[in-house]
Structures are given as C-alpha cells and as structure tokens.
C-alpha cells in the first residue's frame, strides 16, 4: 500500500517536473523569438536607411536636371529588392518626382508627413542634396513580411526542437523514475528479507503476522505461531565457523519451508530463531506441524562434510485461543519457547495459560531474591569432598541456600536460573564467593593449627559472571580481602559456558591459573565440548555429573570409565558427584576416580557443621 502511494507520488512529482521544464522551454523560446524579431526589424531599418542613402546619393543629378527617365531607370533597380514596397523621390516642394513601387503601394503625389508606418512596414526618409542645397527627399518603404516569414520558420524550428527536447527529457525522466521505483522496490525487499536465508526477516514477520491475524475473521480458522530456536547454533558458529553457521541456517530454512503449505510463511526473526506463521489451521494440525518441525531439526545436517546436530526448541501458540492481539500472540509464543528451552531444549512446548503464571512466579521470585540478598536471607552451605582412596576430607563445594520467610528453603535449581536470567547472579555470585573465601580462610587457619593440609573451597561460577569483563579482578580482590591463598580456591565452570565464547574463556582460564586459582569443569559430559577444546582448556579437574554416577555400578560404567581415563591422559583430577552408595564409591575407587562428593559422605551443610567435620579429621590429608 505504502509502495503504491510512493509510486503515485513519484509520478506526480515527475509530471510536475515535466510541466516546469516545458514552461521553462516555452519562456526561453518566447524570449529568443522576441529578441530575433527585434534584431531582424532593426536590421531591416538599417538596410532601409542604407538603401535610401544610396538612392539619395545617386538621384541628385537627375533631380537637379529634372531627368525623370534617368531617375525612373535608377529606381527600377529596386525590383530585385525582396522587401521593397515603395521608393519615391520628392522634389524640394514635396511633389512626387519619381517612384518605383509594387502593386498596391503607389507613392502619394505629395510628400506625406512622417508618421508611424505600422508593424508590417518600415518607412525611412533621406534628404537629397547637392553641396548645401536641399533638392528633395527619398521615402523608402520596406515590407516586414520577410521578417514574419523568417519568424514563422523560427517558431516552427523552435517548436520542433522544444518538442524533441521535451520528448527526450520525458523519456529520461520516465527512465529515471522507473529506476528509482525499481531501486525503492529492491530496498524495500532488502529491508524485509534476511540476507543469509532469503526468508522474510523480523520486520516482515510482524507485518505478515498482522495481515494473517486480520484475515482470521473471514477465514474462520485459527492462526498458529511456531517459534523455533536452534539449541546449538552458537556452538556450531564458534567451533565450525560462521560459514558453516550460515550453511546450517540455510538448511534449516529449507527444512522448515518444506513443511509449509502455500500461503504459510517461515521467517528468520533472530540469529538462530525462526517463526512459522500458519493460517488458517486447526489446533491438532498445528500441533502435528510443530512435532514435524521439531523432528525435522533433530536429524543431523551435513555441513561441509560433517554431521551437525542443530536440534531446536519449539514454542507453539494459537490465535485467537491463546491471545487476542498480535503482541499477546508473540508473548505467548515467546513464553512457550522459553518453557521448551528451560525444560531441556530439543523439545516442543505448547502454550498454556499456566506458563504465564509460572513466568509471574519467576518475576516474584526475582524480586524476593533481590530482597533476600539485601536483607541477609541467603546462606552458604558446604558439601564435603573426599579422597576416594583414603576417604579423607580434601575440600568442599559452596552451595547457595535461600530460606524464604513463607515458603521455607527454595532450591537453587529454581532460583539460580531466575538469577541468571535477571542478571542478579552477578551480585549473588560475588556474595557467595566472599562468604566461601572467608570460610576457606578459616579452614586454612584451622589446618595450620592442626598441622594438616587445608581443605580447598570450590565455588560455582555462572555463565553470566564469566561474561563480566572484570570477573577475575573481583575474584582476586575477594582473595585479598579474605586472606585466602589463591591455590585454595577452585572455580567450577561448565562446558556450555566455556563454549559460549571459547577465546575469552581460554584467556580467563589462563589468567586465573597464572594467579594460582584451580579450575574444574562441572557436569562434565553433559555439555558439548569437544576433546580438541578440552586440550586447550588449562583446567585441573573434571567433575562427573551425578546423572552418570547415580546408575553405577550397573549402568553408566562405560561413560564414567571413559571420563576417568580421559582425565588420566590429560593429567587431570576427577571428582564424582552424587555418590549415594558404598557400592558406587567402591566402583569409583577401583576405576581410579580421584575424589568423591555425595550424600553418602556428606550432604551440603552449614559452615559450622563442616568446621566440626574438619575438627573431627585430625589426621593428615593426602
Ligand atoms: N552459579 C551458582 N550455582 C549454584 C550455586 N549454588 C548452587 N548452585 C547450583 O544450583 C544447582 C542445584 O544445587 P543444589 O540444589 O545445591 O544441588 C547440589 C547438591 O546438593 C547436589 N548433590 C550433591 N550430592 C548429591 C547426591 O548424592 N544426591 C543428590 N540427589 N544430589 C546431590 O548436587 C548439586 C551440586 O551440583 P554441582 O554444582 O553441579 O556440583 C546446581 O547446579 C548448583 O551448581 C552458586 O552459589 N552459584
């Protein structure tokens, strides 16, 4: 619509410009013609004066001797003058002496008083004399018809030239206008197209969604919005390069497009986010389509010779069932997608109003968590870690605890993601680090008095904290403030957070190690780091996730054995977490696992309880 209006405006402007150009040409032609007319008339006047002067010079003798024949002979020479109407010679008394005239322009018998000859004629007079004597006058009348004919020819020529020029100008204007219109169309297209996939982009997506929702009352069905977010796109980009990432996006775009009917639309609305707008459609069919989309993206994509698993989280919602406006529909889609991602990725979540309630709970949690941090409502508990062989206490992991005034203990599994999403984790993380380092410094003091090696303190680091530019400075300042030696601190990082920005992560790890801080990869095996990266990470230890430990010794032995032997090859220590049975501990000890952590050996406990545990272990460790 806007394009049409723009084109109309362009045509009106073009016509206006043509009209202005035509008017300018007409005015220029008129000025030129008037100038020509005046110039030609002036030339005729000059020529007439010259002719009259010639007659006056040559006829004086004939007039003096009253030789009319000689005078007539002389005047007859004017028969070949093209403009001459009349040339008459009058004697000193004003009586006609001789004349030559064309038909209808005979000279009067007596010299008429000089008057206006009119526009069609040029009349000049010249005195005839001999020495000082005045013998008479010559009157010469030339016609301006010659000028008129010339002017008519000029007008014709100018008109032809002007029409020709205007025609050429019109063609040029039209061509330029067409080019401008074409360029505008291309720009508009570009502004609404994603250059990598050729799909409509986010801007176009909003427009399309608006149109589809406007059509709903007439089409009678529902409109479905599917938001598709690739789970591993960032990893593909970081590990295989942007070229491979683009290739993956194109393949995903083709895969999603192939699922749609004509008239339905798929758009790329973010780096790794696609939207499918399907209408009209029934809920069950929209659900089936969302399942197909999720499955289609589960299969590997061959990118530059390697199989890449992109997998996707999909959020589905319908208009008007789940939302009354476009904005509400987009929010519902985002909420469903968010739930698909939060519940483990690589899955489909269909919007239900409870999701909004859950989102509201998250918002409330965030507010209360902030308050708890300020009002001292948080605690740090410590879960001991033991040497698998000697079962001596070697360290402890600091774990945050929130005692809510009404709801009691809220699990970190619930509030840590809220804190991560809101950014509050940065402040929370700093607080935990301070508490943990201060506690670790107390353990060092206790160990010094007992003459035993001090237990180390492990602190979880969230991806958000790692992204903070000055995070290492914060750690170093905390160590300095609490007096904990850097070698006693272990930071637990996860594979996925390291893979977010490998180069920065490696830099951070190098700097941390150079300062003596120990590094451990938490939940090893649940992320997607490659062995190539493991080699680049300057770490001290791998931590086996409890999901692997819990099925030991019946299942999971292959994975755990592989991690232990991998750690041995890389000269890393291994901590198995989630050890709940003696059988598991025995198996781990035999498999060569370095340390163990779990409910069997000790649950997370308040600081005081852990200090008592240290006291109880009065024998040397390691
Ligand atoms: N960034 C931060 N993350 C933190 C912090 N404090 C906790 N967390 C993370 O929250 C997740 C849940 O923690 P939590 O509920 O404390 O669970 C920990 C242990 O209690 C639990 N565990 C340990 N042994 C066992 C066991 O034998 N059985 C069993 N069912 N659970 C056990 O495991 C959690 C420790 O996990 P990990 O950190 O991976 O070692 C959790 O992801 C915490 O990381 C914080 O201050 N910052």
Describe this structure in words.
With 622 residues, this protein is an alpha/beta fold. Strand 12 and strand 13 form a beta hairpin. It folds into 3 domains: 16-148, 2-Layer Sandwich (Beta-Lactamase), CATH 3.30.450; 202-351, 2-Layer Sandwich (Alpha-Beta Plaits); 383-400 and 426-605, EAL domain (TIM Barrel, Alpha-Beta Barrel). It has an 8-stranded mixed barrel, surrounded by 5 helices. A 5-stranded mixed β-sheet has the order 6-7-5-10-11, sandwiched between helices. The chain has a 4-stranded antiparallel β-sheet with strand order 2-1-4-3. The chain is built from 20 helices and 20 strands. The chain has helices at 2-64, 68-76, 145-191, 202-219, 233-240, 242-257, 283-296, 326-342, 353-375, 412-422, 425-450, 463-467, 471-482, 495-500, 502-514, 531-536, 546-549, 557-569, 582-591, 607-616, and strands at 84-91, 96-101, 121-130, 133-143, 222-230, 265-268, 273-281, 301-303, 306-308, 312-319, 348-350, 378-387, 393-404, 408-410, 456-460, 489-494, 518-524, 541-544, 573-577, 595-597. The site of ligand LFPHGCPZ has 23 residues, from strand 13, helix 10, helix 11 and strand 17.
């Amino acid at each position: 619509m806007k394009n049409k209006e723009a084109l109309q405006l362009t045509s009106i402007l073009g016509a206006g410009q043509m009209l202005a150009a035509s008017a300018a040409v007409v005015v220029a032609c008129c000025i030129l013609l008037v100038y020509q007319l005046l110039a030609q008339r002036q030339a005729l006047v000059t020529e007439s004066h010259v002719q009259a002067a010639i007659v006056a010079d040559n006829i004086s003798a004939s007039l003096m001797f009253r030789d009319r024949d000689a005078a007539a002979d002389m005047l007859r020479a004017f028969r070949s003058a093209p403009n001459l109407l009349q040339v008459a010679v009058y004697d000193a008394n004003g009586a006609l002496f001789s004349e030559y005239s064309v038909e209808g322009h005979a000279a009067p018998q007596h010299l008429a008083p000089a008057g206006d000859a009119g526009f069609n004629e040029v009349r000049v007079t010249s005195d005839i004399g001999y020495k000082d004597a005045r013998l008479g006058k010559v009157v010469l009348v030339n016609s301006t018809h010659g000028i008129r004919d010339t002017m008519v020819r000029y007008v014709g020529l100018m008109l032809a030239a002007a029409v020709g020029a205007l025609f050429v100008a019109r063609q040029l204007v039209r061509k330029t206008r067409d080019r401008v219109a074409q360029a505008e169309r291309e720009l508009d297209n570009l502004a609404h197209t994603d250059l990598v996939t050729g799909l409509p982009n986010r801007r176009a997506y909003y427009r399309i969604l608006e149109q589809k929702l406007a059509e709903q009352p007439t089409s009678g069905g529902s409109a479905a919005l599917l938001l598709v977010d690739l789970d591993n796109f960032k990893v593909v980009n970081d590990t295989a390069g942007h070229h491979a990432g683009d290739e993956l996006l194109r393949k995903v775009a083709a895969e999603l497009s192939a699922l749609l009917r004509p008239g339905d639309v798929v758009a790329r609305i973010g780096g790794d986010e696609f939207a499918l707008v399907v209408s009209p459609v029934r809920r069950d069919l929209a659900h089936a389509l969302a399942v197909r989309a999720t499955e289609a993206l589960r299969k590997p994509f061959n990118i530059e010779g390697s199989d890449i698993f992109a997998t996707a989280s999909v959020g589905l919602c319908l208009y008007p069932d789940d939302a009354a406006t476009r904005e509400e529909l987009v929010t519902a889609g985002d909420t469903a997608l968010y739930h698909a991602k939060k519940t483990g990725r690589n899955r489909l979540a269909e919007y239900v109003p409870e999701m909004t309630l859950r989102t509201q709970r998250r918002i409330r949690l965030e507010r209360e968590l902030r308050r708890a941090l300020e009002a001292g409502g948080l605690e740090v508990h410590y879960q001991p870690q033991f040497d698998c062989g000697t079962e001596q206490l070697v360290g402890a992991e600091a774990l945050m605890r929130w005692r809510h005034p009404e709801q009691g203990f809220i699990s970190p599994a619930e509030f840590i993601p809220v804190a991560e999403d809101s950014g509050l984790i940065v402040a929370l993380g700093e607080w935990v680090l301070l508490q943990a380092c201060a506690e670790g410094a107390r353990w060092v003091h206790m160990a010094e008095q007992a003459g035993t090696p001090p237990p180390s303190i492990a602190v979880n680091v969230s991806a958000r904290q790692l992204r903070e530019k000055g995070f290492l400075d914060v750690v170093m300042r905390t160590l300095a403030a609490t007096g904990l030696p850097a070698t006693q601190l272990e930071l637990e990082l996860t594979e996925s957070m390291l893979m977010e920005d490998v180069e920065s992560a490696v830099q951070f790890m190098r700097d941390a190690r150079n300062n003596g801080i120990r590094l451990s990869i938490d939940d090893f095996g649940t992320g997607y780091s490659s062995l190539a990266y493991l080699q680049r990470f300057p770490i001290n230890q791998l931590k086996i996730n409890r999901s692997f430990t819990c099925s030991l010794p019946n299942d999971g032995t292959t994975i755990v054995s592989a991690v232990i032997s991998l750690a041995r090859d890389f000269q890393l220590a291994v901590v198995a977490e989630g050890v709940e049975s003696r059988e598991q501990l025995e198996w781990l000890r035999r498999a060569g696992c370095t340390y163990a952590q779990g409910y069997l050996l000790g649950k997370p406990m308040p600081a005081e309880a852990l200090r008592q545990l240290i006291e109880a272990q009065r024998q040397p460790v390691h």
